[in-house]
Here is the input.
Amino acid sequence: MTNFAAPCPVVRTSEDGLALSRIVAGMWRMGEWQMSPQQRLAFIEQCLELGVSSFDHADIYGGYGVETLFGEALALQPSLRERMQIVSKCGIKLISPARPAHTIQHYDTTAAHITASVDNSLKALGTTHLDLLLIHRPDPLMDFDEIAETFESLRAAGKVRHFGVSNFSRHQFECLHRRVPLATNQVEFSPLHLAPMFDETFDGLQDKGVAPMIWSPLAGGRLFGDDAATVPLRAKLRQVAAETGRSFTSVVFAWIMQLPSRPIPLTGSGRIEAIREAVEATRFTLTRQQWFEILRAARGHEVA
Here is the structure.
């Protein structure tokens, strides 16, 4: 693999949006990493050394526990907060011992729930503000006007600086974006989940000048599995990795970031080498032929 030197670049999500590192460290599995607070701190410091300054959370991650784990680590070195951007999400209510009042898993995008969720996240993380807050899932009962007013209230209170959504359709995004500026739409995308490329999600965001965030860019690890259906795709990715002298993982991240909507992919690993391979993807560009060869292998047919 190429020698790593320069740090991960920074990208602005939109004209009025915030600046995030081009690769974002996803924290949703942190509770599974079996790290001590000091080990968590060391991991955060290593990410920052690579230029990965943005950390993605949600209130529900780890059964409502991951933000606390991150906050415990950050409390060991509070000055690191000035060097990072913290993203969190709210709007899903899970049945959990941590939330005994929840009797059914459901969505809640009311002003009261969003505000309470932000206060809980700030306390757990040990910070005075979130850099970016996302509505985690579209809620059939969501009131766009109420959400917009709640966002503006949180901004005025200094609790949240920027706002966005996650898993929203193009139309849902634009309905809320007309009422309050949204910095991003975080969606699932990978060579094994191509829907946003063809359902107008990416086209609509590119039209608005808004960069999507990407969760599960490695398809939850399925790209490394032994599923017979993905053999041609894995073979093509290995071939392009050999042609470029980069790692398999780097090629996947580079393929995603080559889209003109400027996707910002999340990692999901507690291994710093995995973060490093993602950052390496910011250092090279695939040829158009290589890019379409991967798309063909992913779809199983030529473009029409």
